[in-house]
Design a protein that fits this description.
By secondary structure, the chain is mainly beta. Helices cover 13% and strands 49% of the residues. The chain is built from 1 helix and 9 strands. It has a 5-stranded mixed beta sheet, with no helix packed on it. It has a 4-stranded antiparallel beta sheet with strand order 6-7-2-9, with no helix packed on it. A hairpin with a 2-residue loop joins strand 3 and strand 4. The longest helix has 19 residues. The termini are far apart.
Length: 143
């Protein structure tokens, strides 16, 4: 599974840091979405950042059940993925969830920004992921 978005910085305000989010929902009958974390990446100019995320919120009961049966497989699968701060989707007020892909800074020059979410190392069927799109918004500075 590969999801990619691109944007030119000329369409955005200069001297601003932006965050990119993948907006998704997961159906009640989804499968294969939390077996292995996905790799997220964002690249702008010469800078590129890679991280990892799961597509589903944490389900404690399901995780305990799977650990009884699939612990060895899960450990082996995680070794295939780039190490990083493995995050989970955040729920939004509109019923969708958002997964932060990364952030980038828009300077004075026009550059292309490429945003990716990829999971091709698990070799497992997946279903039930509903994608609204990629949302780019100015990052709020917390004081």
């Amino acid at each position: 599974m590969e999801i990619e978005g691109r944007i030119q910085t000329e369409d955005l305000s200069t001297n601003t840091t932006y965050s990119a989010f993948l907006i998704v929902k997961v159906s009640d009958h989804s499968f294969g979405l939390d077996a292995i974390p996905c790799e997220t990446s964002i690249s702008s100019g010469t800078c590129s950042v890679i991280n990892t995320t799961y597509l589903c919120p944490l389900d404690e009961q399901k995780q305990q059940l799977e650990s009884l049966f699939f612990t060895n497989r899960r450990q082996m699968m995680k070794k295939r993925v780039v190490e990083g701060e493995c995050q989970r989707p955040s729920k939004r007020g509109d019923g969708w969830m958002e997964i932060e892909i990364g952030e980038f800074f828009v300077g004075e020059t026009n550059e292309g920004v490429k945003m990716n979410l990829t999971e091709v190392k698990g070799q497992q069927l997946k279903g039930g992921l509903i994608i609204e799109g990629i949302e780019v918004r100015p990052k709020c500075e917390q004081i």
